[in-house]
Amino acid sequence: MRVLAMLALLVALEGCATRWDTVVAKHGWDGRDVADLVAAVGPEDSVIINKESKAFNWFRFGNCRLTAFTTLDNRIISVETEGSTEGCEVYIKKMAHG
């Protein structure tokens, strides 16, 4: 299931090679602790804390931003990538192996 979701994400990103797009995909990370994603991708660059949620952000690989939205107890609600296909490729590969 995770492999199919990652393939769907790659296909979706193929269309945004020259423009920025937000891609939200089912990827097998929902419900997991954000520490698992940190272990797969690397340390986050910033964290934004709201009253009911957190947003962990990574933006060190080229033209891409990866954002994991979590509950206050760090359970992942969703993961979004925003950027070019080339820029997001590193994150996608790292997430596929996590």
Features:
about 100 residues, five-stranded antiparallel β-sheet, single chain
Can you count the helices?
3
Total E-strand runs: 5
Can you tell me the residue ranges where pLDDT is under 50 for at least 5 consecutive residues?
Answer: none
- What is the count of distinct domains? 1
Mean pLDDT: 80
Strand content: 25-35%
First and last CA, distance? 14 Å
For the CA atoms, what is the radius of gyration?
Answer: 13 Å
Describe the structure.
- This protein is α+β, with helices and mostly antiparallel strands and 98 residues long.
- The protein has one domain.
- 34% of the residues lie in helices and 29% in strands.
- It contains three helices and five strands.
- A hairpin with a 5-residue loop joins strand 4 and strand 5 (76-83).
- The longest helix has 13 residues, at 2-14.
- The radius of gyration is 13 Å and the shape is globular.
Please give a quick description of this structure.
With 98 residues, the chain is α+β, with helices and mostly antiparallel strands.
Topology (SSEs and partners):
Elements lengths: L1 H13 L6 E4 L9 H8 L4 E4 L4 E5 L5 E7 L5 E8 L1 H12 L2
Helix pairs in contact: 1-3
